[in-house]
């Protein structure tokens, strides 16, 4: 990974310089990262990118050329630039486990650090986690629509730059895709890569039949043939079946066909009938034309005979919702060795932050289904042996009581006093974790459109703190 | 730049391996990159990312670890892997100048190379040029809406990964932004960086007034103050004016204020009145809340008193149109030392490609306004001393005749026989080129919604070639 230390907004430096000059740069502060809305009007968000966040923090260092560049801006004096040369992250970062399913307003990352450090990392922390979480979430929606059919990530050529293609593939696999066409992503993240041939392959030969035959002979165990270069039903399919018969005669099992244009519903039904009639019941039909979760739902409900889905542009850009609006807000400052809660008030009630040094607890029933989340102050303990009553933070008369539950604390340490305590995990292991997390959700929270809203309440202690702080501020 | 040689779709390798085994991998082919639709339903597209494409081609090289990875896929034999070790790009690449304004279906990049090389680079060529062109185009739309007001790029935290933030800033400046908040982009591309302070700065001090005072004393010549942390009209503005008066007394000229929330129309008018009443006629009002070209148009038409615009998420992701659908299609193959045109036929007339080895000519009138583009075969010469009649490619009775025009040939060499002949240009020089290009367009082509369609016709020779090829194919 290249050195991203300067990858931040200029105002972080103008502010850090100010704190330095005021000699308050070492004040300990706490920032939460959270988001206010799920992408695509969905019911949840998968947190992703934690591994790259850890790399970023581990590699923070101002090189001489970075300092020279900052000097060239004529905004900073030498004492400050010398101070930056010694920069090293010394704080604590807690995060939910990568691949966790989270909900609006919950702290997903918590940074406790000297003010200048917490401020420097804001922008890139958000950049990394916003993007990968967005794509993992989108992928999980597409996979949910596809049911048990495999979904493949095909979007590199339309991704928003090389990193978006690479980290987007990683996130897509964590969100549920079974593989990607992106070879470098396969190498970097040890995830499955997939791919067969393009229309240009077929065009390069004198006949479609010859192109199929050459391809199938070369990859007899991976003989997925693209059948829509000329005419799917009158040319592509008859030629594919000829070649599949030849393969079968040699003892191989044909893989199937890919369809990249035309009326997917009609064509897939005709293709299925042709394959079945020739006895290729197991040959799959891969579709790959401008797909997303909405189109897949519609095709499946119309009985289209598609067995796997290659999804490109609309997944890798999350096209209906191309940004996750994660924010990073001050929630406490240390004064005389004690953390004092801070709040940001707004006329817009949704924009009022949750104050204090917090954690999140998830309540599971005995069938391991997630029932609700509770944002708590970090020193609160949820006693599983007692009843737990939670209440809606606005309509406080809406209450619910749980017994026989288990409570899981979600924020765990990545860095303690600057030391990385995070254990690297394989992407495929994170993927498995995510799939388990998704299985703890009732399906109504995963619905593609108009999902139920999952309960995220505040502990009584946090609710009291927040409302007292709001009242006090309003008095001023 | 990291080595991106493996950044491609797996099917490129399965196909290249096939060509290698058939011993046709050295056949010379020609591919065009073009797009079928402008982003955001706009009237034009700015081509951007050429410099990074050149870097990518110059750095193509399979490292040992890349070969090992490809070997691990169990798809390729040693002879092919040994062949890849020697990979070197040896072809010709022509492109329009970076920052050019282009239109649907025009070749913007033309690759003539041995088949295996042309195929390998497809995906990353598209990735790089699609993204930067998308953002440069979006930025130019936002700047057009803002008229003569400066536009600043603020999107890093919501960009689709680090590269999207970096190359997106570069493209945004080429498209017309006057600067970016992204410090690393400033360093890498030598573009202006801008930034002042965040709400957290104000919150860190005991009072807003103190926070403003400290800030203004530190940066007396760049004293842009964020006035909406608590209450714009009752706290932010009175405090800002107090500090501005102090600055004026010390002989400095206050920069202005920034507004990041609330009703921009109403607040900006009130702010302007307060600043004017205090005699700060030159102090600017920067707005920065969820802006794009549509919102800016509306604010300007309602008389909002905003003098510069900070644009984030919706610019850096091109949120209403988050991908440019650039494609890369075979248009000719060399047979017996002659280029033979190739065409891709489709039932959808818009998807039929333009065959042959082509160039694009732009026709300017004597006032240097672009009148029309003509896609020609590369060996055609447009004689400026004669009349030129062009015709619509579908409604061929629609004709237009030009005299006293100048004709500019748009595709120029980047690589010749693998040798880079491209001269590196400063980003700010590309930006100037783009602004000049945009000035050659009549404003109706730049309109934000429902722009006029710019004329892109085919030369008679190309039109005949294409229609003959279609007729011949239909006969089969």
Automatic annotation (TrEMBL), chains A, B:
One of its GO terms (biological process) is NAD+ biosynthetic process via the salvage pathway. Keywords: Glycosyltransferase, Ligase, Phosphoprotein, Pyridine nucleotide biosynthesis, Transferase. Pfam families: NAPRTase, NAPRTase_C, NAPRTase_N. Residues 6-130 form the Nicotinate phosphoribosyltransferase N-terminal domain. Gene3D superfamilies: Aldolase class I, nicotinate phosphoribosyltransferase. Coiled coil: none annotated. InterPro entries: Aldolase_TIM, N/Namide_PRibTrfase, NAPRTase_C, NAPRTase_N, Nic_PRibTrfase-Fam, Nic_PRibTrfase_pncB, Nicotinate_pribotase-like_C. Transiently phosphorylated on a His residue during the reaction cycle. Phosphorylation strongly increases the affinity for substrates and increases the rate of nicotinate D-ribonucleotide production. Dephosphorylation regenerates the low-affinity form of the enzyme, leading to product release. It catalyses: 5-phospho-alpha-D-ribose 1-diphosphate + nicotinate + ATP + H2O = nicotinate beta-D-ribonucleotide + ADP + phosphate + diphosphate. Pathway: Cofactor biosynthesis; NAD(+) biosynthesis; nicotinate D-ribonucleotide from nicotinate: step 1/1. One of its GO terms (cellular component) is cytosol. CDD domains: NAPRTase_A. One of its GO terms (molecular function) is nicotinate phosphoribosyltransferase activity. It comes from the Bacteria. Its EC number is 6.3.4.21. Residues 152-353 form the Nicotinate/nicotinamide phosphoribosyltransferase domain. Signal peptide: none annotated. Residues 358-466 form the Nicotinate phosphoribosyltransferase C-terminal domain. Catalyzes the first step in the biosynthesis of NAD from nicotinic acid, the ATP-dependent synthesis of beta-nicotinate D-ribonucleotide from nicotinate and 5-phospho-D-ribose 1-phosphate. NCBIfam families: NAPRTase_put, PRK09243.1-2, PRK12484.1. PANTHER family: NICOTINATE PHOSPHORIBOSYLTRANSFERASE. Belongs to the NAPRTase family. This is Nicotinate phosphoribosyltransferase. It comes from Alkalithermobacter paradoxus.
């Amino acid at each position: 990974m290249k050195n991203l230390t300067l990858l931040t907004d200029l105002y972080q430096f103008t502010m850090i310089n100010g704190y330095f000059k005021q000699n308050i740069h070492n004040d300990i502060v706490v920032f939460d990262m959270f988001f206010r809305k799920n992408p695509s009007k969905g019911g949840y968000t998968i947190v992703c990118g934690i591994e790259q966040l850890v790399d970023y923090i581990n590699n923070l260092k101002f090189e001489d050329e970075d300092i020279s560049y900052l000097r060239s801006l004529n905004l900073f004096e030498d004492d400050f630039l010398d101070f930056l040369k010694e920069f090293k992250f010394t704080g604590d970062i807690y995060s939910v486990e990568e691949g966790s399913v989270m909900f609006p307003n919950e702290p997903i990352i918590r940074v406790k650090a000297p003010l200048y450090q917490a401020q420097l990392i804001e922008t890139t922390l958000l950049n990394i986690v916003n993007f990968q979480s967005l794509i993992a979430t989108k992928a999980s929606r597409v996979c949910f629509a596809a049911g048990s059919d495999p979904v493949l990530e095909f979007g590199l050529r339309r991704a928003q730059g090389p990193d978006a293609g690479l980290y987007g593939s990683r996130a897509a696999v964590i969100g549920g895709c079974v593989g990607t066409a992106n070879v470098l992503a396969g190498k970097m993240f040890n995830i499955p890569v997939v791919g067969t041939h393009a229309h240009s392959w077929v065009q390069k030969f004198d006949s479609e039949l010859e192109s199929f035959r050459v391809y199938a002979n070369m990859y007899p165990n991976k003989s997925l043939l693209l059948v829509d270069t000329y005419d799917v039903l009158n040319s592509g399919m008859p030629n594919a079946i000829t070649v599949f018969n030849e393969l079968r005669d040699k003892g191989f099992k044909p893989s199937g066909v890919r369809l990249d244009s035309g009326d997917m519903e009609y064509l897939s039904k005709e293709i299925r009938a042709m394959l079945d009639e020739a006895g290729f019941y197991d040959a799959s039909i891969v579709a790959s034309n401008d797909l997303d979760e909405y189109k897949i739902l519609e095709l499946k409900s119309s009985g289209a005979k598609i067995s796997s889905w290659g999804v490109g542009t609309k997944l890798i850009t999350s096209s209906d919702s191309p940004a996750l609006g994660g924010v990073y807000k001050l929630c406490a400052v240390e004064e005389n060795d004690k953390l004092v809660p801070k709040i940001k008030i707004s006329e817009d009630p949704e924009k009022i932050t949750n104050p204090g040094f917090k954690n999140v607890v998830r309540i599971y029933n005995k069938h391991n289904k997630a029932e609700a989340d509770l944002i708590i102050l970090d020193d609160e303990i949820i006693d599983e042996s007692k009843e737990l009553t939670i209440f809606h933070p606005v309509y406080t008369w809406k209450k619910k009581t749980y017994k026989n539950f288990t409570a899981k604390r979600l924020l765990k340490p990545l860095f303690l006093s600057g030391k990385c305590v995070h254990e690297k995990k394989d992407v495929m292991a994170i993927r498995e974790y995510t799939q388990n997390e998704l299985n703890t959700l009732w399906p109504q929270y995963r619905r593609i459109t108009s999902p139920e809203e999952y309960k995220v309440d505040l502990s009584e202690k946090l609710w009291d703190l927040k409302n007292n702080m709001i009242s006090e501020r309003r008095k001023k």
